[in-house]
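re: ur question from yesterday

yeah so i grabbed the chain u mentioned. its 517 aa long if i counted rite. heres the sequnce exactly as i have it in my notes:
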Amino acid sequence: MKQILYAAVAALSLVVAPVVQAQERDGENLALIIGNFDYEVMEDVSGTQEADRIGGALRNAGFQVIRGLDLTNDRQVGMARIFAERLRDADRVMVVVMGHVVSSDDDSFLLGVDARETDVLNAGLNGLSLTAVQSLLEQRPGTAILMVAGNRTKPDLGRGMRDGFGATPIKQGVTVVRGRADALSKVVIDGLLEPGNSLRQALPSRSGLNVSGFVSDRVSFMGAGKGDEVSPELGQLAYWNATRDIGTKEAYEAYLRRFPQGIFAQEAQSSLEELRLAPLRAAQAAEVDLGMDRPTRRAVQAALTQLGYNTRGVDGIFGNGSRAAIKAWQEANNFDQTGYLTRPQLVVLQRQKQEADAAAEREAEAAREAEERRAEEARQNEQKAWERARELDNLRGYRQFVRDFPDGRYAGEARRRITAIRQANQQNEQSQQEQEQENEGSSFDNSAAAAQERIFAPNRVIRLAIERQLARNGFNPGAVDGEITQRTRRAIAAFQNSRGLPVTGYVDAATVSLLAL
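ran it thru and got these structure tokens back, copy pasting raw so excuse formatting
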């Protein structure tokens, strides 16, 4: 809604009706008077005579007066636009509004005479935003006055609206005076338009008068007294006094824009620098008040480092690295980036560290559980492999187990079985040799066994596979070339003997099966 209101004041162009009177003079003072008394639907408001008295007094004091009576909202917004256009050439400015003034939580409005039931959603369509008017007045800090006349009649209002100026925020450098129309007339004529009166002297506390915003003992609305020659230096002094009383960054910058080479330009620059450094100094003092000892500072550095902000060391000394880390942390957490910590920030930092610790512990626990699962899976795989090796109970099975699990629980037992099988094979081979010697070198001449061998080892490829399996099981067949020699026969016989088969030295169905061909 505010955007609608400000856009209306800044951009709406309307023709002002004959009731709007403007007296043009060459003076540097400007006034806007809007008096809405004769409402179409709402109760009428008194104060016409007081509006005339104020307008006449301002004209006599050299003000260019833009004055309108009984305006619709469109026409009063148009008048505000005319005021805004002429404001750039004015030194002193005053706005006087009379009529039904209503407010929401953060703005107030002078209702036009055509206003109907007004609520928080349509206030900007029914009335002139006084916050927008203040935004115009704050361009002349210290010499800008908004006067709001109250009235006894109360309009019917909708949701979110109430009667009166309310708690509308006051802009920097703007003086706001509220009260009955006759009280406003008196304070304008007898106080504010008297040269030499400071704002505080011109606006004494009295019944029916409420003064807020900028009020100074040193700044006069009308400047020096009658008969005094006002030099440029004195005018600049008055502006400087107003600037100093306001004491904000915006006020000092406004002074420097108006008087870039002014008498007080250097002091204004110094004041700006003080304002710039004030938050930093306040932050430094606040951190000192925390009384952090070196272990506490180390804990802070450790927490920042854990959260990903490099302090360039955890030594309990807040150097450039620590200050940069604090600034980065403050930025990430929407704090003012001073590089110095406050007590609430320490609480947030500690909570974040605790959350990070908890997250790290959860990750570590998850890693432990995953490792336990992997270890259990490996244990089960090893157990299954050992059971397979035991089922085969041969050199090939045990050797495969040792290759897969060289450091496993059964690796030692597998190696012992390999040694035992080798020794048994050697003994069997030796016994076979002895048997052969006893038989005076008999040559495994067995026609029936030979016939079986021709069936189960009919070609060189199969005989080559038989020789390889004999060698893998620890029985030396001689050259592995697919040719069955007497050495091969002895190896076959030794294998048959180790497996409890009839010892013929020839390959048969049982031998082929146990060789796993």
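noticed a couple things. The chain is about 55% helix and 10% strand. also The chain has three domains: 2-228, 229-286, 411-514.
anyway ttyl
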